[in-house]
Design goal:
2 domains; 434 Repressor (Amino-terminal Domain); Cro/C1-type_HTH; 6 strands; 11 helices; Endonuclease, Chain A; alpha/beta; Helix-turn-helix domain-containing protein; six-stranded mixed β-sheet
C-alpha cells in the first residue's frame, strides 16, 4: 500500500518541482513575480516552503512554466495535500518548526537509518525511558513532559502501520548500559527492544557498536537520522541533533558525506543477530 503524502512532504515536493522546472526552463524570477503580481520576497518564501500558493496562482504558474497536463494535476494534488494538517500540528505549543518538519518527513518516509551514541533511539523508546530522559531537562516544564512522551509514542506507530517504516538503528554499546531512569527502567526498555526486533527483522534492524571497536566515523556524533522516501523525486535528507542545535540537512554534498560515514560505521557494528544476543545478555545482567 502506498504511503499517504504528509503535508510537510507535499509542500516540500511541490516547492522542489517548481524550483526545478524554473531552472530547466530558464525562467527568471522577475518573469514569475511580474506575471503573478508577487514580490521577490514572497516568491522566495514559496520556493523555500514558507508559503503555499493559492490554487489560482498555481494554475497560472504551471502554465507559465510549461508543465504538461499530467504534472499540472499532480501539482494541484500536492498543493491540496500541503494544506492539510498533520496530527503533530496540534502539539504546536510543544514542537518547534524543526521538530514538526522531522515528524512530517517521518510520516511519508520509507526508511530511516539512525545513530545514537548513548541512548536508545526515540522511535524505539518506552514511555518510562522517554520520560526519564525528559524529566531532568531544565528547558522542559514538568507539565509538558507527558505530552512530549505522547508525541514520541505516536511517532512510533509508523513502525507498525499498514505501510511500516523500515528502521536501521546503530547504537553504541554504551546505550545498553547507561541506566536511564535506573536499572528497572533500562531493563524494561531492553526487553521491549528485543521483542520489537524479534519477528520483524525485515523491517527493524538494530546494530550495536561494541566497546571493542577501535574507530568509527560516527564517534562524537549525537543524533543522526538518514531519511529516505519511496518517491524517486525526493532526495535523502538528514536530521541532526546536538545539545544546542538541531535541524534538517538537505545539502547534497553534506548528505552524501554523512551517508558514506554511516555505511562505514556499519562495518564496525556487530551483526544484527549478535547485537540481539548482546541485548539479551544485558537484560540478564540487569536481572
Amino acid at each position: 500500500m502506498p504511503l499517504p503524502t504528509s503535508p510537510v512532504v507535499a509542500a516540500w515536493e511541490l516547492a522542489l518541482r517548481l524550483r526545478q522546472q524554473r531552472d530547466q526552463t530558464g525562467t527568471e524570477v522577475r518573469v514569475i513575480t511580474q506575471a503573478l503580481g508577487f514580490s521577490r520576497n514572497y516568491w522566495s518564501a514559496v520556493e523555500n516552503e514558507r508559503k503555499i500558493l493559492s490554487e489560482e496562482s498555481l494554475i497560472k504558474l504551471v502554465e507559465l512554466l510549461e508543465f504538461d497536463a499530467e504534472e499540472r494535476q499532480e501539482l494541484l494534488e500536492l498543493r491540496a495535500a500541503a494544506k492539510e494538517r498533520g496530527w503533530w500540528m496540534r502539539y504546536g505549543n510543544l514542537l518547534d518548526s524543526d521538530l514538526q518538519r522531522l515528524i512530517g518527513l517521518e510520516a511519508s518516509a520509507e526508511t530511516v537509518r539512525c545513530y545514537e551514541s548513548l541512548l536508545i533511539p526515540g522511535l524505539l523508546q518506552t514511555a518510562d525511558y522517554a520520560r526519564a530522559i525528559m524529566t531532568p531537562d531544565a528547558t522542559i516544564r514538568k507539565v509538558e513532559v507527558d505530552q512530549r512522551v505522547e508525541v514520541r509514542l505516536r511517532r512510533q506507530r509508523r513502525l507498525v502501520d499498514e505501510s511500516p517504516l523500515r528502521l536501521v538503528a546503530i547504537v553504541s554499546e554504551a546505550a545498553l548500559r547507561q541506566q536511564i531512569g535506573g536499572p528497572a527502567v533500562l531493563r524494561h526498555q531492553l526487553e521491549q527492544l528485543a521483542r520489537s526486533i524479534e519477528g520483524r527483522e525485515d523491517r527493524l534492524e538494530v546494530r550495536v557498536i561494541p566497546f571493542t571497536a577501535t574507530a568509527c566515523g560516527l564517534f562524537g556524533a549525537a543524533t543522526v537520522h538518514l531519511i529516505e522516501f519511496p518517491n524517486p523525486r525526493l532526495p535523502t535528507v538528514v536530521w541532526q541533533e546536538t545539545v544546542t542545535t538541531r535541524g534538517v540537512i538537505d545539502d547534497a554534498g553534506q548528505v552524501r558525506d554523512i551517508m558514506l560515514t554511516y555505511q562505514d560505521a556499519l562495518k564496525h557494528t556487530l551483526s544484527a543477530p549478535k547485537s540481539l544476543e548482546l541485548i539479551h545478555q544485558r537484560i540478564k545482567e540487569l536481572d
